[in-house]
Write a structure and sequence with these properties.
The model has no long low-confidence stretch (mean pLDDT about 85). The protein has a seven-stranded mixed sheet with strand order 1-2-3-4-5-7-6. It has a single domain, classed as Aminopeptidase (3-Layer(aba) Sandwich). By secondary structure, the protein is of the alpha+beta class. The protein is globular, with a radius of gyration of 14 Å.
């Protein structure tokens, strides 16, 4: 499987994160990264991360403790179009889940995706996220029971 490292977004990599691109057909699946980075500046519980393969930024993610519901959410997860299909998304999601599962009161992790995003549906499903039956802002909501999934997370 591909190996990735998650690093805080800082002055050395924020520009690379902002320049990541999706394919034309994937447009509208995630908010612009500049907006997401700005959002993390005003909501201290949101953590933006650069996804690295070696020394190269190949993707972007953000997680946080939602101020409205008090639950951990993966708000963003994307891999640049030039690096898709190489296992980086799955590796990054596994690392994100491991990172979040170490935080206090992180028994569950939530994530959402657009109904037409079959790649996200497959990826989240493969790692144990289950649809809750809810929709929020036009996205299917999924939940991972961290306690039940420990074996997958450490595998």
């Amino acid at each position: 499987m591909a190996e990735v490292t998650l690093k805080d977004v800082d002055k050395t990599n924020w520009d690379a994160c902002c320049n990541l691109k999706l394919s034309t057909k994937q447009g509208g699946l995630v908010a612009p990264h500049m907006y997401t980075i700005a959002e993390s500046e005003v909501e201290p519980s949101f953590v933006p991360l650069a996804i690295y393969a070696g020394d190269t930024v190949v993707g972007f993610a953000m997680y946080g403790l939602d101020p409205d519901d008090g639950k951990y959410w993966i708000y963003r997860l994307m891999i640049d179009v030039d690096y898709q299909g190489k296992g980086y998304g799955k590796a990054a999601l596994k690392e994100l889940v491991k990172m979040i599962s170490r935080l206090p009161d992180s028994n569950e992790i939530y994530a959402g995706y657009k109904p037409w995003n079959n790649v996200a549906a497959g990826l989240f499903g493969e790692l144990g996220f289950e649809r809750t039956g809810e929709m929020l802002s036009g996205e299917f909501i999924t939940r991972l029971n961290v306690t039940r999934q420990k074996q997958i997370l450490e595998g």
